[in-house]
Write a structure and sequence with these properties.
HAD-SF_hydro_IIB; disordered C terminus; Cof-type HAD-IIB family hydrolase; about 25% helix; 7 helices
Length: about 260
């Protein structure tokens, strides 16, 4: 079985690397013959620093499905087309937006230098903040602020792009159309094999829809309708997550191994 894990708010917290207890639980999943996959809103660049090095060569799905890496090499990249990007940048200018825009590796950031997003941005210092025109392609846009964020969201929703509003951070997350974590799994043939999903936010909804079993961490009013189980946020959250990972690993154990 494939086990697919979101990162932030699911198995990583407050921008920190995954704990040793989580790492051990994931290794136990592999010892049971399953495959561990990570799927995040973060680009690959920002996934690697929070994932234990023993998993760096695994399948990593970044940018909400826009990027796929294997053995630390990006093997798939889905980007906005020129027409979409032109219209979006016009809206960003119109609404005086601040944003983080990602290409396959480098990025463009025009927000304040004390914004919390910077705590998770390129912690490995492997990328550059470059002018927007310097990117060959854009795979994801995170809008941090605007003079009217709701109006901007409504205009984006009229486009053929994927828009998620993250209420806790009060940001808009934009990806190319038909791109999400589940479509990335489909492109790799993994959905047809079956998978268990762990996630916590709106960008995990499609992932949960395709899962054989889905576990929600915390509370999200829409995601909960697609979850088979929920682990509520408590002072012992990580121990409950570890317990559920190990339980499901044993429940779905079978002899198939992956190279």
């Amino acid at each position: 079985m494939n086990f697919v894990f979101d990162l932030d708010g699911t198995i990583c917290f407050k921008g920190e690397t995954m704990s040793q207890d989580i790492v051990q639980a994931l290794h136990a999943v592999e010892d049971d013959g399953h495959r561990v996959i990570f799927a995040s809103a973060r680009p690959i660049r920002d996934m690697l620093p929070v994932i234990h090095p023993s998993f760096h060569d695994h399948i990593l799905i970044g940018g909400n499905g826009s990027l796929v890496a294997s053995e630390q090499t990006i093997v798939q990249s889905k980007s906005f087309d020129d027409r979409e990007l032109s219209f979006i940048t016009e809206l960003l200018d119109k609404h005086k937006a601040t944003y983080l825009i990602d290409s396959d590796w480098n990025y463009t950031y025009n927000g304040p230098q004390d914004h919390p997003i910077l705590n998770n941005l390129d912690p490995g210092k492997t990328a550059q903040n470059v002018p927007l025109a310097h990117h060959d392609r854009i795979i994801k846009i995170l809008i941090l602020s605007a003079n009217n964020l709701k109006s901007l969201e409504n205009e984006l929703l009229r486009m053929d792009v994927v828009v998620h509003y993250h209420g806790l951070e009060q940001v808009l997350d934009i990806s190319p159309t038909t791109i999400n974590k589940r479509t990335a799994l489909q492109s790799l043939g993994i959905e047809s094999e079956g998978y268990i999903a762990f996630g916590n936010d709106a960008n995990d909804i499609e992932l949960f829809k395709g899962a054989q079993y889905a576990v929600m961490i915390g509370s999200h009013k829409t995601l909960r309708f697609y979850a088979d189980d929920t682990i509520n946020s408590t002072s012992h959250l990580e121990s409950h997550i570890v317990e559920q990972i190990r339980h499901l690993s044993q429940k779905y154990v079978y002899s198939t191994s992956y190279s």
